[in-house]
Structure formats: C-alpha cells, structure tokens
Amino acid sequence: MDEMTQRTVYVNGDYVAERDATVSIFDRGFLLADGVYEVSSVLGGKLVDFPGHMGRLKRSAAALEIALPWDEETLLAIHRELIRRNALDEGMVYLQLTRGSAGDRDFHYPDADTQPTLVLFTQAKSLVDARSGREGIRVATQPDWRWARRDIKTVQLLYPAMAKMAAKAAGADDAWLVEDGMVTEGASNNVWMLTHDATLVTRELSSAILPGITRAAVMTLAETLALQLEERAFSVEEAQQARECFVTSASSFVTPVIAIDGVPVGDGRPGEVARRLRAAYIEESRRRAL
Ligand code: PDD
C-alpha cells in the first residue's frame, strides 16, 4: 500500500495509520506465537457471523488463560469504527489478541496485571465474486503436522503456511491436511464432501480441527435445504470418489473443490450442492450481517 492508501488500524486503544502502528519486540505474540485471532468477513460494510467469531475468541482466550478485558459490544464498536474509517465495503477484519509483553523474553506467563495486546486491521477483498468461488479450487494433501489443540485459534500458523506453499509447489491452490489416513481440515478452512447417496459429510468437532463459524452456519443451512448431514471423518480416497467436495471459511464462504491430488472430484467442475449452499450462505449472511 502506498502512502495515499494507508489503512487506519487499531492498536491497544488507538486508531492510527498503519505505518505508525507499533507493538513491542518483547510482545509474546511476536516471540512465542502466544496469541489468538479471528477473521470476520464484511459484506456491504457489515460484519458476517460476528457473535460466532467473538464467542470463539472468548473460548480461545480462556483456553490459554489470556485476558480479554473487552466485552462483545466494545469489540463490535471497534470493528465498526475500523470499517467506517477505511470505508470497507467487502473484505475482512483481522483481530489479534496476544498475552502482551512483560518487557523481556521468558517462557513463563507474565503477571496477571500484564496488559494483553489487541490489534485489528481491515483487508479489502472481493469475496462474493471470487474466481475460486465460481471455478473451484484444486487441493493437494499434506501431512497434518500441527500441534494437538487445533480447536484453539492460535497465531501459530507456520505449518499451515508451509502446507500451502507445498500445495502450491505441487500445482494446487490449497492444502488439505491428513492424519492417520483421514482428512482433518484444510490449512485454513473446514472440509466437506457430498456422497453419492446425497449425504453431506463434515468432520466432527474435536481437538483435531477448528470449530469453524462458517461450518456451523452451513450446517444450519443444510438442514433448511433438507440435506442429509453426517459428522464424521473421511479419507482422501473417499473424498476423491465423492460426488462433490467443498471447503468453508469466513473468507472463502463455500468454495468448491474440483480436484484432490490431481484426481478430479465428480466431473471435475463445481458441484450443484456447493453452488446452492454458497448462494444461500451469502444471501443469509447479507441479511443477518451487523
Ligand atoms: N481461517 N480451519 C482452520 C485451520 C482455519 O484457519 C479456519 C479459518 C477455518 C474456518 O473457520 P471459520 O469458518 O470460522 O473462518 C477452519 C481463517 C479464515 C484464516 O486463517 O484466515
């Protein structure tokens, strides 16, 4: 971004130009990846699934005993002010909360009175008309070598970044992570397949995956559309032979998967159920956005 298009970002109570935003080099988010985050999408200048994202932020922070001294109303006001100041119509708001800085490096958590660090910024992006949503994506599988508490949305994203780079090197658009022969989730999304007897399958919640906010919303929509739903793990082979596959996340909504490790899914084109769920999710999100 050049000087003319500098974003206004939020850092610990202040709205500042991005070039003036600073965080301590001793911040535990920087030194230890000791922090959690949320990504909320914005449609028509309004926040999608906001209560869900803030509910999960509270759970992530509580699981790591990171203080979160802002209530949901205050966090909503900060999100809205940033959207307003940046005239954001479509895209995302990224929020990061870290355990803060005790002024030095130390593995042990600092005193309870240490202020957590709260940073938010906007990202303008075309989400509804994304090419991936229309044409689908190709995924490549990678071993799931992340830690064992993937239900907490921490900023430890080095392995997902590595998996995405490996997938890119293999000629794919994104990575699916695999453990004990079963797909856990995408590097930054939840995975779904539609079986030939028209049952939608997505992995059950556990510490192996992130409880996706979009996943929950799409499960509700699937019920509305009278689709059969099953929560269970599936293998790479089963997904390759499914009628359809897709992924869900705040920034990708519902995105069809058209090939897995070079094997086309269905006829190799975005599936009908994924298309319907994507349209329904976008419509419902616009209606309910805050
Ligand atoms: N990623 N699983 C993982 C590992 C994720 O990183 C994400 C989200 C999801 C989907 O969760 P939700 O539907 O609540 O966005 C599942 C965000 C978008 C990111 O890191 O950019």
What does this molecule look like?
It is a single chain. The chain is globular. The chain has two domains: 3-124, D-amino Acid Aminotransferase, Chain A, domain 1; 131-288, D-amino Acid Aminotransferase, Chain A, domain 2 (Alpha-Beta Barrel). The two termini are 28 Å apart. The model has no long low-confidence stretch (mean pLDDT 97). The strands form two sheets. Strands 7, 8, 9, 10, 11, 12, 13, 14 and 15 form a nine-stranded mixed β-sheet that branches. The longest helix has 17 residues, at 272-288. The protein has helices at residues 28-32, 50-63, 72-85, 131-135, 158-169, 213-224, 236-240, 272-288, and strands at 8-11, 14-17, 35-43, 46-47, 91-98, 117-124, 137-143, 174-179, 182-186, 190-194, 199-202, 228-231, 244-249, 253-260, 263-264. The chain is 29% helix and 28% strand. With 290 residues, it is of the alpha+beta class. The chain contains eight helices and 15 strands. It binds N-(5'-phosphopyridoxyl)-D-alanine.
Q: What's the structural blueprint in terms of helices and strands?
A:
Layout: E1 8-11, E2 14-17, H1 28-32, E3 35-43, E4 46-47, H2 50-63, H3 72-85, E5 91-98, E6 117-124, H4 131-135, E7 137-143, H5 158-169, E8 174-179, E9 182-186, E10 190-194, E11 199-202, H6 213-224, E12 228-231, H7 236-240, E13 244-249, E14 253-260, E15 263-264, H8 272-288
Parallel strand pairs: 7-8, 7-14, 11-12
Antiparallel strand pairs: 1-2, 1-6, 3-4, 3-5, 5-6, 8-9, 10-11, 10-13, 13-14, 14-15
Bound ligands, named by name, code or SMILES: N-(5'-phosphopyridoxyl)-D-alanine
CATH fourth-tier homologous superfamily of the largest domain: D-amino Acid Aminotransferase, subunit A, domain 2
Give helix % range. Answer: 25-40%
Mean pLDDT, all residues:
97
- Tell me the major beta sheet: 9 strands, mixed
Radius of gyration: 19 Å
Q: In the CATH scheme, what's the topology name of the largest domain? A: D-amino Acid Aminotransferase, Chain A, domain 2
CATH architecture term of the largest domain: Alpha-Beta Barrel
Report the end-to-end length measured between terminal Cα atoms.
Answer: 28 Å
Number of helices: 8
Q: Please report the total strand number as a whole number.
A: 15
